[in-house]
């Protein structure tokens, strides 16, 4: 897991160096069975490219959309996903877990 | 996140220094804290950080200033084996599967051969020099396996002065008692010597080298996950 996180941070730095807007999404809390541990990260650039993982695939799409908003307005956000959340069901987090994700812009 | 903080974390990772990134989830303020800068029992957040470094998992700490998210960036886990013996062959494999970077130290080149230990980092320096060069940290476990005091004792002397989280030594109760006497004679304190786990490994009735390796990696895991500070 460490190695994945490292690649994610390096990718964020590389995009930033290339002049892209970049956001980092990090799993800050989990409840129940969630596929990725606290600290897992996803880096997103302003074209919607991403590197890393916060859920093993089921909510990455929604996180990337939120990250694009964060890149645009610079406001950090806390996102909740869980099976009780209709949106989460749509994006496929049907694994009985709940996760909270913090999304921030790289300044 | 400021770019300077991202680069600081990447640098700490490359230099294998344990660092935590603390983010206040209300104000979005961030700062870094290094394990070596933590003071014992200084504050709630420092106690939280200490435990988070040990367990290698961060989380949310509720402080007076609201929720703080702690991200832990630890150096990789390492397992250092003294003595390229039969048990070391099994332990090198099981240790790698359990997530450790494994290094074997044995100055006897016929023991420490690539043929016996494919894909394992081998060092044929004398154990005390070899361990000093490895810069042992709180993410390192050391298993002393050679059965030869000429190799085991210098290794233990260096290991006991390091912050490594696990030190085990192979040998029966009688062998271990003799070893303790030699180490006392060499000037090590009872407190230091009590850090050595001997006979090594959890008591699961292990008989074969592979079973003994399982017992050792189980004991290392318990030290890492359950016991906290070294």
The proportion of strand residues of chain A reads 25-35%
Helix content of chain B: 25-40%
Structural classification of chain A: alpha+beta
Number of strands of chain B: 10
Gyration radius over CA of chain B? 19 Å
- Uncertain segments of chain B: none
Approximate strand percentage of chain B: 15-25%
Oligomer: heterodimer
- Number of extended strands of chain A: 5
Strand order of the largest sheet of chain A: 3-2-1-5-4
Q: How many angstroms separate the termini of chain A?
A: 25 Å
How can the largest sheet of chain B be summarized? 6 strands, parallel
Strand order of the largest sheet of chain B: 7-6-5-8-9-10
The amount of helix of chain A comes to 25-40%
Tally of separate helices of chain B:
8
| Largest interface, C-beta within 8 A | A-B, 22 and 21 residues
Q: What is the N-to-C order of secondary-structure elements of chain B (H for helix, E for strand)?
A: HEEHEEEHEEHEHEHHEH
Radius of gyration of chain A: 13 Å
Please provide a written account of the structure.
The complex is a heterodimer of chains A (107) and B (230). Chain A is an alpha+beta fold. Chain A is 34% helix and 32% strand. Chain A is built from 3 helices and 5 strands. A 5-stranded antiparallel beta sheet of chain A has the order 3-2-1-5-4. Chain A is globular and about 40 Å long. Chain A starts with a helix and ends with a strand. With 230 residues, chain B is an alpha/beta fold. A 6-stranded parallel beta sheet of chain B has the order 7-6-5-8-9-10, sandwiched between helices. In chain B, α4 runs parallel beside α5. Chain B is elongated. At the A-B interface, α1, β1 and β5 of A face α1 and β4 of B.
